[in-house]
From TrEMBL:
<keyword id="KW-0001">2Fe-2S</keyword>
<dbReference type="InterPro" id="IPR036010">
    <property type="entry name" value="2Fe-2S_ferredoxin-like_sf"/>
</dbReference>
<keyword id="KW-0411">Iron-sulfur</keyword>
<dbReference type="InterPro" id="IPR006058">
    <property type="entry name" value="2Fe2S_fd_BS"/>
</dbReference>
<keyword id="KW-0560">Oxidoreductase</keyword>
<protein>
    <submittedName>
        <fullName>(2Fe-2S)-binding protein</fullName>
    </submittedName>
</protein>
<dbReference type="InterPro" id="IPR036884">
    <property type="entry name" value="2Fe-2S-bd_dom_sf"/>
</dbReference>
<dbReference type="InterPro" id="IPR001041">
    <property type="entry name" value="2Fe-2S_ferredoxin-type"/>
</dbReference>
<dbReference type="Pfam" id="PF00111">
    <property type="entry name" value="Fer2"/>
</dbReference>
<feature type="domain" description="2Fe-2S ferredoxin-type">
    <location>
        <begin position="1"/>
        <end position="77"/>
    </location>
</feature>
<dbReference type="InterPro" id="IPR051452">
    <property type="entry name" value="Diverse_Oxidoreductases"/>
</dbReference>
<dbReference type="Pfam" id="PF01799">
    <property type="entry name" value="Fer2_2"/>
</dbReference>
<keyword id="KW-0408">Iron</keyword>
<comment type="pathway">
    <text>Alkaloid degradation; nicotine degradation.</text>
</comment>
<dbReference type="InterPro" id="IPR012675">
    <property type="entry name" value="Beta-grasp_dom_sf"/>
</dbReference>
<dbReference type="InterPro" id="IPR002888">
    <property type="entry name" value="2Fe-2S-bd"/>
</dbReference>
<dbReference type="GO" id="GO:0051537">
    <property type="term" value="F:2 iron, 2 sulfur cluster binding"/>
</dbReference>
Length: 153
């Protein structure tokens, strides 16, 4: 099927198989490997992207659903060589270790802070609850989101 959508601020026309998942379309057709298919069931958050500014698990969506929509992946979050504030705070606070979950965590936090630039610690925990991390224990991740929120405010 032919679709037209905005991917990381660039208008794209693309032909995609009707049964191809969005995460696989992004990874295989556009070489955007930040979103990863961890569980394939929307439980781990490693495939999270921003879909019209809202965090979604792209393993549960079909590529054809991108038609007419705006998608942002972790690769499109920075502006040129300038990292987004969330990317900077994840680095400065040590909120990442292996990095597998990091893109999903950052994009989920970006969606939260876009709607609520002054979240409580509980609101941050709730927003991130669909993103699993096996390395950091979440403390530094929450601190990174809190620090980025101060910058956005």
């Amino acid at each position: 099927m032919k679709i037209k959508f905005t991917l990381n601020q660039e208008v794209i026309e693309h032909e995609v198989a009707p049964n191809k998942t969005l995460v696989n379309m992004l990874r295989e057709d556009f070489d955007l490997t930040g979103a990863k298919e961890g569980c394939g069931g929307g439980e781990c958050g490693s495939c999270t992207i921003l879909f019209n500014g809202k965090p979604v698990t792209s393993c549960l969506m079909l590529g054809v659903q991108a038609d007419g929509q705006e998608i942002t992946t972790i690769e499109g979050l920075s502006q040129g060589n300038e990292l987004d504030e969330l990317q900077k705070t994840f680095i400065s606070t040590g909120a990442l270790q292996c990095g597998y979950c990091t893109p999903g965590m950052i994009l989920t936090a970006k969606g939260l802070l876009s709607e609520n630039p002054d979240p409580t610690r509980e609101e941050i925990k709730t927003a991130l609850s669909g993103n699993l991390c096996r390395c950091t224990g979440y403390k530094r991740i929450i601190e990174a989101v809190e620090q980025a929120a101060k910058h956005y405010r």
